[in-house]
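Quality-control log, excerpt.
Job 1 of 2 completed; input and output follow.
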Amino acid sequence: MPQPGLKQDHFTYGDYRLWPEDQRWELIDGRAYDLRSFAAQRLF
């Protein structure tokens, strides 16, 4: 999963597969998006 201190701007599907399954991430064109932030926006 992406770490705040890491300066990685491109992730692969292999990276994605190593991230914890209990966290919600979407990988689009090599960029990781934390889906929790989108869910929080929908609540308000």
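Job 2 of 2 completed; input and output follow.
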Amino acid sequence: MKESKNNKINKQVLFIIPLLLLFSLLSVMTLTAQDSNSLFSPGFQGAYLALGSHPNDEEESLWYRDIQGITHDDDNWYFSGGKVEDGYHPTILLFKVPVGIDLDDGVAAGMDDPSSGCAYRSWDKDFGELPGDCKHFGDIDYFKNSETGLGYIAVPMSDCASGVKIGFFNSITLGLVSEVDISAYQSSIGWLAISDGVIYSSMNSEPYLYGYTIVYTTNGTPTISGAPFITMMMEGTDEYEVRHHQGGTFTPDGSLFYLVTGYFLLGDGVVGDDPTNVRRIHIFKKTGSEWQLLKRSSGSTLPFLYETNSEWDEWRHREPEGATYWDLNNGRAPGVSGELHVLLLNNDTQSCGDYMDCDNIWLKHYTSMLRVDCEAPDFPLLLPFPRFGRPDDPFQTISSAMAADLEKGVRDTGVILGIYPGTYNEDQLIPLEGEPVKMVPRGNGTVHLLPEE
């Protein structure tokens, strides 16, 4: 077999495919080595498989206090803080952390080191006056002016002296560049997300997405073009009724939208006596002019696990927050992998040193790649755990990965099977017609695909 250019680039991975299987394998895809940038191509960006949390129940005093939002550029994380209140000083409203710094235990040290690349803006230290006279920053997003190359953080700003606003902050200095009052269209704004030059947001209890087109003034300052256009969020043929919208993000191809919902109260999933308080991640797919609900996370079971429950005490209140999509399967971010990253905040009201409170956070990570490794050890007979395709519970055969995935009904978002070296005795590898599934090589070595004996 002639070795492809891609194989030479990707550590000489070779696939041996007997002629007896070509008729079925070609209906899936040609097995060629791919780098991380091409793995999660359009149609394969539906991250739903939970990989764990990092940070995991981490507390770093003021840096994670009332954290609300998350986004990124090519090399940095950006986070937004929460609400300015008397007695809570300093209040961090925006901060930037290079991707190579460990979010679990490196942020505080990075903020104290001018050479680290970390940066922040606080209300009382840097702004003097509140940006836009607003006390609350929600879930944020990053965008770049393609003509000037300058990057900006778009910030939903509420609890303002008047109205609600979208603020645009310089991604280098974190300083406020411009702001737009949108109170003529929205009475509340807790999050925003950007796709194809449009800022999307919603109000807390409505099934609509408001879309504001980003434009630039003659001097390159970002603003919006005027009144928004409105699209519907649907569940089947009905309007989507879940409320308490906290965060959102789009996949790079713009076909999927993740919405994070729920507020802090005792319980998991549907909380207390409020049936609208569903603490979940919801995946929507663009269908015509509407966004149709594909699936929502579970509070207790894999694969799409977003666990928010905890033992109740007077200090612990877990609340879903922001989300961002960033392929970090290349090892750049310590302790982090996957493509979808979603915050969970523990609203902690007990005293913490010089600060009024020290909130804990979880950053939960998700992928659309199922791991297949024929050399993975068997589970002990007394512990018949199901396999989900994570690094610690990979599928042992390609056919079992495909079958399990079909049972879970996740293929509407695209599925990638990451095949690790070894010999696979496979016979039935034909997926359902039109299903978005592809197989790609992972690791170093040779993958043999042989007919089942």
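Post-run check on job 2. The chain has two domains: 5-44+371-451, 51-367.
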